[in-house]
Write a structure and sequence with these properties.
- The protein is mainly beta.
- The chain is built from two helices and 62 strands.
- The strands form nine sheets. It has a 26-stranded antiparallel β-barrel.
- The protein starts with a helix and ends in an 11-residue tail after the last strand.
């Protein structure tokens, strides 16, 4: 038996050796093919901002000894904001390579993309092989979850003679999720005492809250009596700053300085020159700058420039460069122009003019060529689309706004003419119900093949609140051939939620989205029946039904959300479907300056045409401490249908990992500011490892000079059997200059003395009193009269100003309010003060009736004997007031919400005043309280 076993072992060894040699040859063959044609993006990762455009180059290198033909270059899906990408149908000789630009704009829909990966499929053929490969890059984008902080008016006045004043601060949550934020206030310069200086608020999605801030003046600068209050909002979930604003505060003074002279300005009026170098060899000098200046008294101007100079080749590129002129309500912009609300991507070089009229009406007209560059020699100045458009916005300040737009696009490169008309209307029924509708029409015409498409879109959205119930319905539909951004889309999102308490909420949500567009044929080739090479097709859909329960326990927040989801994606080459049962969980908390957030999503899924089910999981853990954050993500198996598109023949049990860290800092008395980020991404699905580190620095050398720097290093390594690798670096060194703000020549002293003109003759006479402590405005500059009724505006530039005096108190100017300042002015100003009439609404309740009423906002009318009608609005204290001339008036209320005991009252207003308070008694309608006696 032993010899026989030896023979079997020898045969087995030879067989293994044979198969190993064969496998080695096959592997070498595949390796040679892999290395022969290399397809990748120049940048593995691109940082984007909302509204900006960016370009990444698709690099195709033919390292083989044969000529290849690039047949098609197709995006993996219909990426919103995709402005341009190469279409293929060209050849590459042996040893030749091409860098092809892929240009996108980070519009709202792009920023909403669930995946940060932008993927393209490239099909090519050679005499020996026909193949389709995928390549991708990642975009770094951050969600905007800002907290807006502002006051009802731009200026807030503080009277130093009063021991304590107050302002109302509005805090608005601009996110759709519930937030708990901390508001911190800081006086700039130091000199204000604010109570409370720090406050914690809990805000529902899109909720506004008003808080009262008590203010005392500790020290005052009488020449420049402005203070700024720096308000900062910090999200207590992750201890991250999510909002800030500078509030303008004026301490009233009778001696007001207007022009301050030359001052440095940060954020505008600057120029920066920098040197940029990167590993691709595209080294260049860059100039960036912007300025705002006044041409004359009625004309303001803004200018921005962006320019690159490639010194090695002597080539240059001018972009993001524009000049804007504003006169009254009209704005003209020439150069690089962009616009929105056309339901069509609008960006290029040309001109745009817009003008406002009425309260909320605006007209805009634009004409441009769709080319990102204004002018240059670095990029070939190819002829882009010619776009002309117009837009009319309308509405009122209360409950209605909308717009109507039309756009015509002639594209000589694709030989297509496009027309798109779009209209939207938003109606605020009340503070708790909003309706928005949209409709669009389009027409496309191929200029070579003479094929045409007409399309339409429509949409209807509703947001409402009924007690503790919130309802949200978002719906839109566009036909396959609609030429707008929503081409071939159907979207329906229905969400109902209920608030059980401040710490408990539940919701149910249904979503159905579909993308199935239809395009004109490529005009470069005639239409052939049955030939799909001249057509484009892709299809994506997601349908999901889910629910969720959110609750909080002390500093801990929890979310549980089960969901059933079906996804599908298809194109001419592939088709995949994924059906999943999902469970999402989220836990977050804060400990002082520390924050933790953990999210996990488990799925039990089934791929189409396969009988077995599989498990998958994606989880993210985030940690933040002050300005440092660390985030890690892990994924096992396919989470969405696009994970099934990998061109690698991998087993379903794959894993992807991602680790990302960032740090923002300020040091050396805030003269040095900057940030560092670093991250690495490993994908077993796509067989690659990506790493990136970047930093941004600015050092303030002097009040007007700064040194700037930026660096980025990224590396790529394929982990497939026959791998490739590469890296990329970029750095920038620059110098930044902030310029002084210009002041108009010819400054003067303007003095007013205010008095009450009792006999209406415009002269200050015996028996007429001066008006002390009256607020006076000279345009937007504010002061207050002293005990002699005088107010002084120092250092006033020449020009035309409008004088306003305490209109809220009913004072009326007896002179022309338009003041021409071309020398020193000392003028007595006569005013006629109307008589204050105050009133109140008082509820008459039955016994045991404890239901509160709200009469805030009810309008009270006062009709004089000559038929003139004045109005007043009831405030939160149920009070109202009029400022009337002497005479007889009928006061009445036209409101059927409540029953009024005496809805009309007649009063006689005398010159001496009206000391009585007008009382309107009211009671609830159809309310009877029955009391059972025992």
């Amino acid at each position: 038996m032993k010899p026989q076993n030896g023979i079997l072992i020898s045969i087995l060894r030879r067989t293994i050796l044979f198969f190993a040699i064969v496998l080695l040859h096959v592997s070498l063959a595949f390796a040679q093919e892999k290395k022969d044609i290399e397809i990748h993006f120049e940048n593995n990762s691109v940082a984007v901002e909302k509204g900006s455009t960016f370009t990444n180059f698709l690099v195709i290198e033919n390292k083989s000894s044969e000529e290849i033909t690039i047949q098609n270059i197709i995006p993996q899906e219909k990426y919103p904001g995709l402005l341009f990408y190469p279409k293929g149908d060209f050849t590459l000789r042996a040893g030749q390579s091409k860098n092809l630009p892929v240009k996108l704009i980070a519009n709202v829909d792009f920023m909403k993309l669930r995946s940060n990966e932008i993927q393209f499929q490239v099909s090519y053929t050679s005499p020996t092989v026909t193949k389709t490969e995928s390549t991708s890059f990642f975009v770094n984008k951050e969600d905007n979850k800002n907290i807006a902080i502002y006051t009802a008016t731009y200026e807030n006045f503080i009277n130093p003679a009063v021991p304590e004043s107050s302002i109302l601060l509005i805090v608005e949550n601009q996110s759709y999720s519930k937030r708990t934020v901390k508001i911190d206030l800081q006086s700039i310069p130091d000199g204000l005492e604010m109570m409370p200086k720090q406050q914690t608020l809990s805000l529902e999605g899109l909720e506004k809250q008003t808080i009262e801030i008590k203010i005392r003046v500790r020290k005052q600068n009488t020449l420049y009596p402005e203070f700024n209050i720096n308000a900062t909002a910090t999200d207590l979930l992750d201890n991250k700053t999510v909002g800030s604003n500078t509030l303008y505060l004026v301490i009233l003074s009778h001696n007001r300085q207007i022009a301050r002279g030359n001052e440095t300005v940060s954020g505008s009026n600057f120029a920066e020159l920098s040197y940029n170098e990167n590993s691709s060899g595209f080294n260049f000098l860059q100039l960036r700058g912007n300025t705002t200046f006044r041409v004359n008294e009625n004309l303001k101007s803004r200018f921005n420039i962006g320019a690159d100079y490639y010194h090695e080749d002597g080539l240059y590129n001018l972009y993001d460069t524009w000049l804007e002129l504003e006169r009254k309500n009209t704005v003209l912009r020439v150069g690089n122009v962009n616009s929105n609300d056309y339901d069509y991507p609008v960006f290029g070089r040309g001109g745009k003019v817009s003008t406002k009229f009425g309260e909320n009406n605006q007209v805009e007209i634009l004409a441009l060529e769709n080319n990102y560059n204004l002018y240059g020699t670095y990029f070939q100045q190819a002829k882009g689309s010619t776009i002309v458009g117009a837009k009319y916005g309308f509405g009122n300040s209360k409950n209605l706004n909308g717009k109507v737009s039309y756009l015509f696009d002639h594209d000589p490169r694709f030989n297509v003419d496009t027309q798109v008309a779009n209209a939207t209307v938003s109606l605020l029924i009340n503070t708790k119900n909003i309706i928005r509708t949209e409709v669009g029409l389009s027409q496309e015409k191929g200029l070579v093949n003479k094929d045409e498409n007409a399309g339409a879109s429509m949409g209807a959205n509703y947001e409402g609140k009924f007690g503790k119930w919130d309802i949200q319905s978002v719906n839109s539909f566009a036909t396959k051939s609609y030429a707008g951004i929503k081409r071939g889309t159907f979207f329906s999102n229905q969400r109902i939620s209920r608030q059980f308490s401040e710490s408990q909420r539940a919701f149910i949500q249904y979503q159905n989205s579909q993308i199935d567009p239809e395009f004109l044929s490529f005009q470069s080739a005639p239409i052939q029946s049955g030939n799909t090479a001249n057509l484009r097709y892709y299809f994506n859909s997601t349908e999901a039904l889910g629910s969720g329960y959110q609750f909080s326990l002390k500093k801990w927040n929890f979310l549980l959300s089960p969901k059933v989801e079906k996804q599908k994606t298809a194109n001419f080459y592939t088709s995949h479907e994924l059906f999943s049962y999902r469970m999402e969980a989220n836990i977050s908390t804060t400990f002082g300056a520390h924050g933790l957030n953990w999210t996990a999503e488990y799925s039990y899924s089934k791929e189409n045409n396969k009988a077995d089910w599989f498990n998958s999981l994606r989880t993210t853990l985030s940690y933040r401490y002050k300005s440092f954050s660390l985030n890690g993500t892990a994924q096992w198996n396919a989470i969405n249908v696009f994970d099934l598109n990998s061109y690698y023949d991998v087993d379903r049990n794959f894993a992807n990992y991602n680790v990302y860290a960032s740090y923002n800092f300020q040091m050396l008395h805030n003269n040095l500011i900057g940030s560092f980020t670093a991250g690495t991404y490993y994908s077993e699905l796509y067989k690659n490892l990506n790493s990136n580190i970047s930093g941004n620095l600015e050092y303030k050398i002097s009040p007007s000079w700064s040194a700037t720097g930026y660096f980025n290093f990224s590396g790529y390594k394929s982990t497939s059997a026959y791998a490739s690798s590469g890296n990329f670096y970029q750095f920038r060194l620059g110098i930044k200059r902030s310029f002084t703000a210009a002041t108009a020549l010819g400054n003067h002293k303007v003095t007013f003395q205010l008095f009450e003109d009792k006999n209406y003759n415009g002269l200050l006479e015996a028996g007429e009193s001066v008006l002390a402590n009256e607020i006076v405005k000279l345009d937007n500059f504010v002061a207050m009269t002293d005990k002699n009724g005088k107010v002084v505006f120092q250092n006033v530039p020449e020009g035309i100003y409008t004088l306003k005096v305490n209109e809220s108190a009913g004072a009326r100017l007896m002179i022309d309010p338009v003041i021409m300042v071309n020398n020193n002015i000392n003028r007595k100003v006569s005013l006629v003060k109307n008589i204050r009439v105050s009133g109140k609404l008082k509820e008459i309740r039955q016994a045991y009736d404890e239901v509160e009423t709200d009469v805030t906002g009810i309008v009270v009318y006062a009709k004089s004997e000559d038929g003139v009608i004045y109005t007043a609005v009831v405030n939160q204290k149920n009070e109202f007031e009029f400022f009337l001339k002497d005479g007889k008036y009928d006061l009445y209320i036209e409101n059927d919400k409540y029953s009024y005991i005496q809805p009309t009252q007649t009063i006689q207003v005398a010159k001496e005043g009206y000391p009585e308070t007008v009382i309107f008694e009211y009671k609830k309608k159809d309310t009877t309280i029955k009391v059972k006696k025992f």
